Records
---
Amino acid sequence: MTSAQLDVTLGGQLQTCLQEALDGQSVRLARQEQLKANVHRLGVVIDGWERMLIVKWSDPVVARRSRLVACRWLPAVGLGDLGPPLLTVAAERNGEGAWQIYEDLPGKPLSTEQPVVGEVEAVIDAIARVHTSFAEHPLLRECRLWGGDRGIHFYSANVHDAVIALHSLDLDLDRGDANAIAARDALLERMHLLEQEEPERAQSLASAGGPDTLLHGDLWPTNAIVQSRSDGFSVRLIDWDEVAAGPSWYDVSTLMLRFDPSHRRWILDAYRQAVARLADWPIPGDRDLNLIFETCAYARLASLLVWSVAAAAEGDSGWLPERLAAMVEWLDAVRPVLPTP
């Protein structure tokens, strides 16, 4: 949804949704800023005062998951203050989309270029609190129902689907697709290798993966908003579109891989220490952890590959050869996640 479409919609469904979220008060749009596709920051005027909101257009199922996170799951374990400040969700009448409306947050996303130790530790502590609170929690079956599972099945299903997707590509040397064919063949080689490695990876997750828990599912640093306070840092975890159930290391590996390898050891140590304060969990050694981290990373990349091929099949596919070549590099860059001596 573009900014122009947002302007038009504000006079109708979104206007009504905003008024409902703000207790029926009259709302006037003062300014707007597009943050990314389908996400906007709005300045709305209520009785002469401007209030900053974030509005997000999404699939209704995603909006439902996000509402469950903010209004049911996190509050159920006393962690509502760590989640997104959701005001309301309103589905369009045609059922094709929904608005999520949030309070705009002070603070900034977690930095990876020059990470501040205190900020990173605050984010690690927040996600450790989520993980330990939901380990084997009765609500976890509901989380899995709505968000899916990120265990070994996520790995095996996406690797298998990636092989099928790559074989489905309509590539032809006569059309000058030589680079795309080379990338496809390289990806097929890597996917077949990952298929062969599945038994070992499954055993590693079963023996050392720890209890299943609630996962953010997309724990990039940009989804952790940190605000400095006199007593330390406050953290809000936002954009729970990919929330799921599974081993906690799925989230940990997602976050760690965004940092330079030189930072990963102390980040892992911070997570270990945070978990030790909260629960009696055995922490695997480096060999098992590297195998688990790789399994999670490969599963995410296989999923991205599947949906990239699917997106190319639905429209302009001119960007696909470059994406395939990049994915070969991304797959080769995964191991080892945790540097070893």
---
Amino acid sequence: MTKQIPQLSLLTDKERQTAVRDIMAFFATERDEEIGVIAAEEFLDMVLESIAPTVYNRAVDESKDFLSEKLDAVLLDLDITLKK
């Protein structure tokens, strides 16, 4: 039994529908296989379950690095304004 991901927390309904359509088109075009909506949704869920935590964690790490650089710049600017 696979673990279910809460759909709404990862993709909007529109994003999910688009992804399912894209998956179906990919299988038809690249693999010459016709898959249905249910198979495409299951494939999407499997991919999301597999990579979502990694992508999320990487985005958080990159955000922390970005904010740290900006904070360092602000702190430097504040240090420069100190009266000596």
---
Amino acid sequence: MNPTAQAGPAAPFDPNLLRDKSLLARATNWLLNHQMPVWSVLRVLHPNTRLRDTVFVTRREEIETILDDSDGFRVRFGERIASLHANRTVPFGLGTDGPEYFSALKDVSGAMVLEDIPRIGGMVREFVEPRVANARELDVARLARLAQADCGRRYMGLAVSDDLLPDLALWFLAVGNYAFGPQKPDSDAQRAGSAAVAQLEPLIRASIDRALAAPCQDEDTVIGRLITAGMDPQTINITVLGMFTGMMSASTMAIANTAQVLLGWPAAMTVTQEAARNGDDEQLRLCLLEALRFKPIFPAALRDCAAPRVIAAGTRCEVRAQPGDLVCAVTQSAMFDGRRVVAPKAFNPGRSPADTLVFGYGRHWCAGFAIGRAQLVETLKPLLKRGFYQSRPQRKAITYFGAFPEYLPVTLR
């Protein structure tokens, strides 16, 4: 593909809206980097905690119950994506709990197939390896988001020019920051997400129009496959926006978080580097996923309470959730619940897959988990082969773009 399309006139996008320096933002970032002790204390002393209209749930069994109860606790991703559009009635089935969910899952499964994984891995390698090969210092956060944006535009079939790639990456992260996050409507995060969607929609529409005009050119892209499946352009638009947002947000966060875990844990870094240098991709994948368990993509699955529910009824941990409450099912805490997970604080690449909730749980297990694993491995493998570390000034220089690391500098050996 020779990407050439540019964004048309749209609302201005200001990334400073997500560079929040408020006390609340600093506290949130502190929690993201020190969350394990907090959840451990709550899980023992007060497993289900209400803070105004937010309920935090930290034990594995209650979290699984919440994630299984789609009538009482509703996924908010689809509605939040739709709320950023001018036409707010457009659904995104994978981000809902309604009857359209399984239909949307079937459509997406037909457009994103497992046979694509080697090709996706190759796309990431093509982007990352030349940028790592001769670098002495490197921003892992920037590398992660640009690599995923480049892979996503090619795989989805978005006609986006190379010079627009940095903006494309930030736009999708802005959408993901609001769609997956706890921020309320009429927040800076919501305004940044709306401005980003205003930039993205013309690009997606232009790419759909191009694929409709020359179907043979884009038949092996997600947009091309959705067209072949008979999906109408308006639904393709919102579906591609949702799919790319999920793919971009999850992969970028996974890469940055995994790198940070390894940087702070020499023993885990040694084992993971050994797998990369030995060319053992299976062991490398297991090491990276185990590292990600310690700082997952998102520490909690957020659900809107849709019907009255009693959590841990009849126990000392009982708490009532009412419609309008935000329920935070703290999946990171669940992955370290010693009553269900053996030696949870040990770095064990060979542990049971059942111990991890990194890619979700139950019916909302991430539809793109195999793609995300490939992106994680292929982005970090060249850095691990070289070896990387952080100096003290580099550790202090880390900044955030909403919930995502914006600047994560490392030195290559």
